[in-house]
Write a structure and sequence with these properties.
Layout lengths: L5 E5 L6 H14 L4 E4 L14 H12 L3 H20 L4 E5 L7 H4 L6 H15 L5 E6 L3 H12 L3 H10 L2 H5 L4 H22 L3 E6 L5 H12 L19 E7 L2 E10 L2 E5 L8 E5 L4 E4 L4 E7 L5 E8 L9 E5 L5
Parallel strand pairs: 1-3, 1-4, 2-3, 4-5
Antiparallel strand pairs: 6-7, 6-13, 7-8, 8-9, 9-10, 10-11, 11-12, 12-13
Helix pairs in contact: 1-10, 2-3, 3-5, 7-9
InterPro entries: NPHP3-like_N (IPR056884), P-loop_NTPase (IPR027417)
Protein name: Nephrocystin 3-like N-terminal domain-containing protein
Keywords: Repeat
Length: about 325
């Protein structure tokens, strides 16, 4: 294992940051190395200057009112506290989207000068130097296709929100960016900014082009980069997955809702689970335990004395705006 206390995983939205962070966390754990993955939307995140919707809105208001220097100073203080605490810890921390994401992509849409953003990143680099950080940058050559895929993946109003966020920002308005093409231009420009920062970042680092979606290969490349032993997948035959397929009910907001476990090709997907994107893949960890892809959640299927699946429990880290913790009762099919 490399001599590091911190693994930073970066890239634009949809580049696979949380997917890789989850994989790295699992690899470290299986290797007997104490670690902690802080998912970018996790509650009580050690680097965030907000902790709930009200404080988040206050931060946004300060930024949009031109008070970004104040926010930069507050965030740099958080980085300093984080670095000092981690230096005396035996735990390796994995962060996704905190260096080039978080404040960096909050400053960019406000049209903050690039040199000021680079100055902020340089200060963070110096703060993190004692941790010997490892930086992994994920990217796709075709930005338009990458954005299309993430909008399809997350569903709902993701595309319209992404377009509005880019084109209605100060950066987008000044450049008269419009529609999907304007959003693509916005993220291309942002990528240029962070790739400049990546090239200047003084740390162990690797850039990984992952357009092909060959995650087994990418994960192995990262394992090699981190100098971890080769990892084996959980030995759960896909033929066993049919056992878990079905409709599960849960209670939320005073009503009953349905959640589906479906078999798609050689893997399970979950659809309709709180705090989870539509049609999200489940990753087997053991016979009846699955990780929810890209999220800090785990599903455990429960059986009765006869081996019949009667329900499942979802557990995991609390997020800023909710939790995945629920018990789901399997709906028995009528005969």
């Amino acid at each position: 294992m490399r001599n590091t206390k911190l693994i930073l995983i970066e890239g634009i939205p949809g580049s696979g940051k949380s997917t890789l962070a989850q994989s790295v966390t699992h690899a470290l754990t299986r290797s007997g190395i104490a670690c902690r993955w802080w998912y970018e939307e996790e509650k009580d995140h050690p680097l965030y200057v907000f902790h709930d919707h009200a404080s988040l809105q206050q931060t946004i208001d300060t930024l949009t009112a031109g008070g970004y220097h104040q926010i930069i100073e507050a965030v740099l203080l958080k980085w300093k506290e984080f670095s000092q605490q981690l230096q005396s810890s035996e735990t390796i921390v994995i962060l996704d989207g905190c260096l080039f994401g978080y404040l960096t992509w909050s400053l960019f849409p406000l049209n903050v000068p690039a040199d000021e953003i680079q100055s902020y990143l340089s200060q963070v680099e110096q703060i993190l130097h004692p941790l010997h950080p490892c930086l992994i940058y994920l990217y796709q050559q075709d930005v338009a296709r990458a954005l299309e895929k993430i909008c399809e993946r997350r569903g709902g109003e993701t595309q319209s929100r992404f377009i509005a966020g880019a084109t209605q920002s100060s950066y987008g308005k000044q450049r008269q960016l419009q529609g999907f093409d304007g959003m693509v231009t916005y993220w291309k420009d942002f990528r240029h900014l962070i790739e400049t920062a990546f090239s200047q970042f003084d740390a162990s680092k690797m850039a990984l082009e992952n357009s092909a979606g060959s995650w087994t290969t990418y994960e192995q490349s990262v394992i090699t980069f981190l100098r971890l032993p080769p990892q084996e997948k959980a030995a759960v035959a896909s033929s066993e997955f049919e056992h878990f397929v079905g409709t599960y009910s849960f209670e939320e907001d005073g009503g009953q809702h349905a959640c589906l476990i479906l078999l798609e090709e050689d893997h399970l997907i979950v659809d309709g689970m709180p705090q989870v994107w539509t049609r999200t893949r489940l990753i087997p960890r053991s016979h009846n335990i699955f990780a929810v892809e890209s999220l800090p959640f785990q599903i455990t299927f429960e059986e009765d004395a006869h081996g019949v699946i009667i329900g499942m429990s979802a557990t995991g880290s609390a997020l800023l705006f909710g939790t995945a913790d629920h018990f789901f009762t399997r709906v028995q099919e009528k005969r």
